[in-house]
Amino acid sequence: MLSFQSKTFGALTLQELYIILALRAEVFVVEQNCPYQDVDGKDEHAYHLLGYENTTLVAYARVLPKGTTYTDYASIGRIVTAPNHRNKGYGHVLVKQAIQLCKTTFSSIPIKISAQAHLEEFYKTHGFIATSEAYLEDDIPHIGMVLRD
After folding, report:
1. Contact 88, 111 (CB under 8 A)
2. What does the pLDDT look like over 122-148, one tens digit per residue?
3. Per residue, what are the HEC states of 44-67?
4. pTM
5. Residue burial 1-40, b: 16+ Cβ < 10 Å; e: rest
6. 129: phi > 0 → left, psi -120 to 50 → alpha, else beta; which?
7. Which domain, by its residues, includes 34?
8. In the chain, what's the furthest Cα-to-Cα distance?
9. What is the CATH number of the domain that holds 66?
10. With the CA atoms of 47, 89, 129 and 104 taken in that order, what torsion angle do they form, in degrees rounded to the nearest 10?
């Protein structure tokens, strides 16, 4: 069972920040063999959604206010589940929690994501619709998707 915490950047402890960055690097840089600038200056503006199984961080997403990534949209990004905790449905739980955090925090502002293209159907199950053709982001095919609810 997952338990979630949402924290602003300033509320994160150094240990929490270290564990978040380690998980993001493990998946987005090492596993996906994609060197890119993960520390992009947006973390300071984000709400960090941390999903724990007992005391272990196993799921994470950052929720960004309108104007941070997209002019007219709030955004959810860095959506990740720890490799050794996949196939438990945690990704779906994480996305639902992230959407709820957006709605609670930013009211009726629509949400936009830049989804890895192979996950388009996954995000469609949560109500996102494709708004672009596939494009390369850090040499990985992505697709723009919006949730307007």
Report:
1. no
2. 999 999 999 999 999 999 999 999 997
3. HHCEEEEEEECCEEEEEEEEECCC
4. 0.95
5. ebebebbeeeebeeeeeebbeebbeebbeeeeeeeeeeee
6. beta
7. 2-147
8. 40
9. 3.40.630.30
10. -30
